[in-house]
Specification:
By secondary structure, the protein is of the alpha/beta class. The chain is built from eleven helices and twelve strands.
Protein backbone atom coordinates (compact mmCIF):
# COMPACT_ATOMS: atom_id res chain seq x y z
CA UNK A 1 0.00 0.00 0.00
CA UNK A 2 1.04 3.58 -0.50
CA UNK A 3 2.64 5.73 2.16
CA UNK A 4 0.53 8.52 3.57
CA UNK A 5 3.47 10.86 3.80
CA UNK A 6 3.59 11.72 0.12
CA UNK A 7 -0.10 12.43 -0.15
CA UNK A 8 -0.65 15.57 1.93
CA UNK A 9 0.19 18.07 -0.77
CA UNK A 10 -2.87 20.32 -0.79
CA UNK A 11 -3.32 22.69 2.13
CA UNK A 12 -4.21 26.28 2.84
CA UNK A 13 -0.69 27.59 2.46
CA UNK A 14 0.83 25.38 -0.21
CA UNK A 15 3.21 23.87 2.36
CA UNK A 16 3.06 20.10 2.72
CA UNK A 17 2.22 18.88 6.24
CA UNK A 18 4.97 17.07 8.08
CA UNK A 19 4.59 13.60 9.50
CA UNK A 20 4.20 13.46 13.30
CA UNK A 21 5.71 10.47 15.09
CA UNK A 22 5.01 8.30 12.04
CA UNK A 23 1.29 8.72 12.58
CA UNK A 24 -1.10 11.43 11.42
CA UNK A 25 0.68 14.50 10.02
CA UNK A 26 0.14 18.09 11.04
CA UNK A 27 -0.91 20.90 8.73
CA UNK A 28 0.91 24.21 8.76
CA UNK A 29 -1.56 27.06 9.07
CA UNK A 30 -1.13 30.44 7.40
CA UNK A 31 -0.03 31.99 10.72
CA UNK A 32 2.79 29.46 11.06
CA UNK A 33 1.17 27.30 13.74
CA UNK A 34 0.52 23.61 13.11
CA UNK A 35 -2.68 21.63 13.61
CA UNK A 36 -2.87 17.82 13.82
CA UNK A 37 -4.89 16.64 10.83
CA UNK A 38 -7.01 14.18 12.80
CA UNK A 39 -8.86 15.41 15.86
CA UNK A 40 -11.42 14.25 18.39
CA UNK A 41 -14.62 16.31 18.50
CA UNK A 42 -16.73 16.70 21.64
CA UNK A 43 -19.92 17.63 19.83
CA UNK A 44 -22.79 15.30 18.84
CA UNK A 45 -22.86 12.40 21.34
CA UNK A 46 -21.14 14.45 24.06
CA UNK A 47 -23.42 17.48 23.70
CA UNK A 48 -25.10 18.78 26.88
CA UNK A 49 -28.19 20.97 27.15
CA UNK A 50 -30.98 21.95 29.51
CA UNK A 51 -30.71 20.74 33.10
CA UNK A 52 -27.61 18.71 32.22
CA UNK A 53 -25.65 21.95 31.93
CA UNK A 54 -25.73 22.25 35.71
CA UNK A 55 -24.11 18.85 36.24
CA UNK A 56 -20.72 17.31 35.56
CA UNK A 57 -20.89 14.36 33.18
CA UNK A 58 -18.44 11.62 34.06
CA UNK A 59 -19.18 9.79 30.77
CA UNK A 60 -18.05 12.87 28.82
CA UNK A 61 -14.86 13.12 30.87
CA UNK A 62 -14.29 9.44 30.22
CA UNK A 63 -14.89 9.86 26.47
CA UNK A 64 -12.36 12.68 26.24
CA UNK A 65 -9.87 10.74 28.36
CA UNK A 66 -10.34 7.72 26.11
CA UNK A 67 -9.41 9.82 23.08
CA UNK A 68 -6.38 11.29 24.83
CA UNK A 69 -5.18 7.87 25.98
CA UNK A 70 -5.72 6.47 22.48
CA UNK A 71 -3.24 9.02 21.17
CA UNK A 72 -5.40 11.97 20.07
CA UNK A 73 -3.69 15.26 20.88
CA UNK A 74 -6.14 17.47 18.97
CA UNK A 75 -9.42 17.95 20.87
CA UNK A 76 -12.23 20.12 19.52
CA UNK A 77 -14.77 21.69 21.86
CA UNK A 78 -17.21 24.62 21.96
CA UNK A 79 -19.21 26.57 24.49
CA UNK A 80 -22.36 25.46 22.64
CA UNK A 81 -21.58 21.81 23.44
CA UNK A 82 -21.96 22.58 27.14
CA UNK A 83 -19.01 20.37 28.06
CA UNK A 84 -15.93 22.60 28.28
CA UNK A 85 -15.65 21.81 32.01
CA UNK A 86 -15.56 18.09 31.25
CA UNK A 87 -12.96 18.62 28.52
CA UNK A 88 -10.83 20.61 30.94
CA UNK A 89 -11.04 17.91 33.60
CA UNK A 90 -10.07 15.24 31.09
CA UNK A 91 -7.03 17.27 30.08
CA UNK A 92 -6.01 17.61 33.72
CA UNK A 93 -6.60 13.95 34.51
CA UNK A 94 -4.61 12.83 31.46
CA UNK A 95 -1.48 14.45 32.95
CA UNK A 96 -0.24 15.03 29.41
CA UNK A 97 2.00 18.09 28.93
CA UNK A 98 -0.06 21.05 27.71
CA UNK A 99 2.52 21.68 25.00
CA UNK A 100 1.69 18.31 23.42
CA UNK A 101 -2.00 19.13 23.03
CA UNK A 102 -3.94 21.14 20.47
CA UNK A 103 -7.17 22.46 22.02
CA UNK A 104 -9.93 24.22 20.10
CA UNK A 105 -13.04 25.90 21.42
CA UNK A 106 -15.64 28.17 19.86
CA UNK A 107 -18.06 30.97 20.69
CA UNK A 108 -21.61 31.33 19.43
CA UNK A 109 -21.56 35.06 20.33
CA UNK A 110 -24.71 34.99 22.43
CA UNK A 111 -26.96 38.04 22.50
CA UNK A 112 -25.70 40.45 25.15
CA UNK A 113 -22.29 38.78 25.28
CA UNK A 114 -19.04 40.05 23.87
CA UNK A 115 -16.56 37.68 22.28
CA UNK A 116 -14.10 38.58 25.02
CA UNK A 117 -16.56 37.65 27.77
CA UNK A 118 -17.31 34.34 26.07
CA UNK A 119 -13.62 33.58 25.62
CA UNK A 120 -12.74 34.29 29.25
CA UNK A 121 -15.64 32.11 30.38
CA UNK A 122 -14.42 29.26 28.15
CA UNK A 123 -10.85 29.52 29.44
CA UNK A 124 -12.13 29.36 33.01
CA UNK A 125 -14.25 26.28 32.32
CA UNK A 126 -11.39 24.58 30.50
CA UNK A 127 -8.95 25.47 33.26
CA UNK A 128 -6.40 26.56 30.66
CA UNK A 129 -4.16 29.59 30.21
CA UNK A 130 -4.60 29.53 26.44
CA UNK A 131 -6.22 27.61 23.58
CA UNK A 132 -4.52 26.67 20.36
CA UNK A 133 -7.47 27.64 18.17
CA UNK A 134 -10.49 29.85 18.88
CA UNK A 135 -13.35 29.98 16.39
CA UNK A 136 -16.50 31.96 15.74
CA UNK A 137 -18.89 29.00 15.76
CA UNK A 138 -21.09 30.43 13.02
CA UNK A 139 -21.80 33.70 11.21
CA UNK A 140 -25.50 33.55 11.97
CA UNK A 141 -25.37 35.67 15.13
CA UNK A 142 -24.65 38.74 12.98
CA UNK A 143 -27.58 40.68 11.55
CA UNK A 144 -25.31 43.15 9.77
CA UNK A 145 -21.72 43.19 8.47
CA UNK A 146 -20.76 45.57 11.26
CA UNK A 147 -21.63 42.97 13.90
CA UNK A 148 -19.38 40.41 12.22
CA UNK A 149 -16.61 42.99 11.93
CA UNK A 150 -16.87 43.87 15.62
CA UNK A 151 -16.71 40.22 16.64
CA UNK A 152 -13.62 39.67 14.49
CA UNK A 153 -11.85 42.72 15.91
CA UNK A 154 -12.32 41.12 19.35
CA UNK A 155 -10.94 37.85 18.00
CA UNK A 156 -7.86 39.70 16.78
CA UNK A 157 -7.32 41.23 20.24
CA UNK A 158 -7.57 37.78 21.80
CA UNK A 159 -4.88 36.53 19.42
CA UNK A 160 -2.74 39.55 20.28
CA UNK A 161 -3.06 38.64 23.96
CA UNK A 162 -1.47 35.24 23.27
CA UNK A 163 -4.37 33.41 24.89
CA UNK A 164 -5.46 32.03 21.51
CA UNK A 165 -2.56 30.96 19.32
CA UNK A 166 -4.70 30.90 16.16
CA UNK A 167 -8.14 32.25 15.31
CA UNK A 168 -10.67 31.17 12.72
CA UNK A 169 -14.29 30.55 11.89
CA UNK A 170 -16.80 27.74 11.54
CA UNK A 171 -19.79 27.24 9.24
CA UNK A 172 -18.84 30.29 7.15
CA UNK A 173 -19.85 30.39 3.50
CA UNK A 174 -18.05 32.43 0.84
CA UNK A 175 -20.32 35.42 1.46
CA UNK A 176 -19.51 35.44 5.18
CA UNK A 177 -15.78 35.13 4.59
CA UNK A 178 -15.91 37.91 2.04
CA UNK A 179 -17.66 40.11 4.60
CA UNK A 180 -14.70 39.56 6.92
CA UNK A 181 -12.19 40.42 4.21
CA UNK A 182 -14.15 43.61 3.48
CA UNK A 183 -13.66 44.90 7.04
CA UNK A 184 -12.78 48.61 7.06
CA UNK A 185 -9.03 49.05 7.45
CA UNK A 186 -8.39 45.44 6.48
CA UNK A 187 -7.79 42.37 8.60
CA UNK A 188 -4.96 42.36 11.11
CA UNK A 189 -5.24 38.58 11.30
CA UNK A 190 -7.23 36.72 8.63
CA UNK A 191 -8.97 33.52 9.77
CA UNK A 192 -6.65 30.53 9.36
CA UNK A 193 -9.33 27.82 9.66
CA UNK A 194 -12.92 27.34 8.49
CA UNK A 195 -14.50 24.32 10.20
CA UNK A 196 -17.47 23.07 8.18
CA UNK A 197 -19.70 20.05 7.72
CA UNK A 198 -17.98 18.22 4.90
CA UNK A 199 -18.59 14.83 3.31
CA UNK A 200 -19.41 13.56 -0.20
CA UNK A 201 -23.04 14.69 0.02
CA UNK A 202 -22.13 18.22 1.12
CA UNK A 203 -19.11 19.45 -0.85
CA UNK A 204 -20.18 23.12 -0.89
CA UNK A 205 -20.02 23.48 -4.67
CA UNK A 206 -22.81 25.39 -6.40
CA UNK A 207 -22.40 26.55 -9.96
CA UNK A 208 -19.24 28.62 -10.08
CA UNK A 209 -18.98 28.85 -6.29
CA UNK A 210 -16.65 26.40 -4.57
CA UNK A 211 -16.14 27.02 -0.85
CA UNK A 212 -13.09 24.76 -0.55
CA UNK A 213 -11.38 26.43 -3.51
CA UNK A 214 -12.17 29.86 -2.08
CA UNK A 215 -10.68 28.94 1.29
CA UNK A 216 -7.51 27.69 -0.37
CA UNK A 217 -7.24 30.87 -2.40
CA UNK A 218 -7.44 32.84 0.85
CA UNK A 219 -5.00 30.50 2.67
CA UNK A 220 -7.70 29.27 5.04
CA UNK A 221 -7.35 25.64 6.07
CA UNK A 222 -10.55 23.61 5.86
CA UNK A 223 -11.55 21.42 8.80
CA UNK A 224 -14.29 18.82 8.37
CA UNK A 225 -16.83 17.83 10.97
CA UNK A 226 -19.31 15.00 10.36
CA UNK A 227 -17.06 13.38 7.73
CA UNK A 228 -18.81 10.00 8.20
CA UNK A 229 -22.30 11.33 7.44
CA UNK A 230 -22.61 9.37 4.17
CA UNK A 231 -22.27 6.19 6.24
CA UNK A 232 -23.96 7.06 9.52
CA UNK A 233 -26.87 9.26 8.43
CA UNK A 234 -27.33 9.29 4.65
CA UNK A 235 -27.00 5.63 3.66
CA UNK A 236 -28.04 4.14 1.32
CA UNK A 237 -26.49 6.39 -1.27
CA UNK A 238 -24.30 6.47 -4.38
CA UNK A 239 -20.98 6.44 -2.52
CA UNK A 240 -21.80 3.20 -0.62
CA UNK A 241 -20.48 0.75 -3.26
CA UNK A 242 -17.31 2.82 -3.73
CA UNK A 243 -16.62 2.85 0.00
CA UNK A 244 -17.21 -0.91 0.14
CA UNK A 245 -14.91 -1.59 -2.81
CA UNK A 246 -12.10 0.58 -1.46
CA UNK A 247 -12.41 -0.81 2.06
CA UNK A 248 -11.89 -4.29 0.65
CA UNK A 249 -9.00 -3.15 -1.55
CA UNK A 250 -7.08 -1.54 1.31
CA UNK A 251 -8.11 -3.88 4.10
CA UNK A 252 -9.69 -1.11 6.16
CA UNK A 253 -13.19 -0.11 7.26
CA UNK A 254 -15.57 2.01 5.19
CA UNK A 255 -15.28 4.69 7.88
CA UNK A 256 -11.53 4.77 7.39
CA UNK A 257 -12.04 5.22 3.65
CA UNK A 258 -14.40 8.13 4.38
CA UNK A 259 -11.90 9.79 6.72
CA UNK A 260 -9.07 9.20 4.28
CA UNK A 261 -11.10 10.88 1.53
CA UNK A 262 -11.01 14.09 3.55
CA UNK A 263 -7.38 13.76 4.59
CA UNK A 264 -6.29 13.11 1.00
CA UNK A 265 -7.69 16.51 0.08
CA UNK A 266 -5.56 18.21 2.72
CA UNK A 267 -8.60 18.69 4.96
CA UNK A 268 -8.26 18.51 8.75
CA UNK A 269 -10.73 15.88 9.93
CA UNK A 270 -12.67 15.34 13.16
CA UNK A 271 -14.12 12.12 14.56
CA UNK A 272 -16.52 11.83 17.49
CA UNK A 273 -16.34 8.10 18.17
CA UNK A 274 -16.09 7.12 21.85
CA UNK A 275 -15.04 3.56 21.03
CA UNK A 276 -11.43 3.17 22.15
CA UNK A 277 -10.57 0.40 19.73
CA UNK A 278 -12.07 2.32 16.83
CA UNK A 279 -10.15 5.44 17.80
CA UNK A 280 -6.90 3.50 18.04
CA UNK A 281 -7.72 1.83 14.73
CA UNK A 282 -8.03 5.18 12.97
CA UNK A 283 -4.58 6.24 14.21
CA UNK A 284 -3.12 2.93 13.10
CA UNK A 285 -4.85 2.42 9.77
CA UNK A 286 -5.18 5.93 8.34
CA UNK A 287 -1.41 6.50 7.92
CA UNK A 288 -1.03 3.07 6.30
CA UNK A 289 -2.82 3.81 3.04
CA UNK A 290 -3.92 6.61 0.77
CA UNK A 291 -6.50 6.89 -1.96
CA UNK A 292 -5.39 7.55 -5.49
CA UNK A 293 -6.40 10.88 -7.05
CA UNK A 294 -8.92 8.99 -9.21
CA UNK A 295 -10.45 7.30 -6.16
CA UNK A 296 -10.79 10.67 -4.44
CA UNK A 297 -12.48 12.05 -7.55
CA UNK A 298 -14.74 9.00 -7.96
CA UNK A 299 -16.10 9.50 -4.45
CA UNK A 300 -16.56 13.22 -5.06
CA UNK A 301 -18.38 12.60 -8.34
CA UNK A 302 -20.70 10.01 -6.81
CA UNK A 303 -21.35 12.29 -3.85
CA UNK A 304 -22.63 15.03 -6.11
CA UNK A 305 -25.51 12.76 -7.11
CA UNK A 306 -27.07 13.24 -3.68
CA UNK A 307 -27.47 16.15 -1.26
CA UNK A 308 -27.63 15.76 2.51
CA UNK A 309 -26.99 18.33 5.23
CA UNK A 310 -26.95 17.10 8.81
CA UNK A 311 -26.61 20.42 10.66
CA UNK A 312 -27.91 24.00 10.39
CA UNK A 313 -30.86 22.91 8.26
CA UNK A 314 -32.92 25.77 9.69
CA UNK A 315 -30.61 28.18 7.88
CA UNK A 316 -30.77 26.58 4.44
CA UNK A 317 -33.37 25.52 1.90
CA UNK A 318 -33.52 21.75 1.45
CA UNK A 319 -31.82 21.95 -1.95
CA UNK A 320 -29.12 24.47 -0.96
CA UNK A 321 -25.71 22.87 -1.52
CA UNK A 322 -23.58 25.87 -0.46
Amino acid sequence: MNSATSNFEVDATGVSPKQLHGLIPSLKLADGNEIPMLGYGLGTANYKSGAALDTISEPIITAALTALKAGYTHLDGAEAYGNETELGRAITQSKLPRSELFITTKTTVRAGDTVTQAFNRSLEKLGLDYVDLYLLHSPFFANAPEELHQAWREMEKIKDSGMAKSIGVSNFLIEHLQTLFDIPGGLQYPPVVNQIEYHPYLQHVVGGQDLIAYCREKHIAVEAYSPLTAITKASPGPVDPIYTKLAKKYGVSEAEVALRWCLDQGIVTLTTSSNEERLKGYLKKLPSFKLTPKEVEDIAAAGKEKHYRQFWNQKFDASDRR
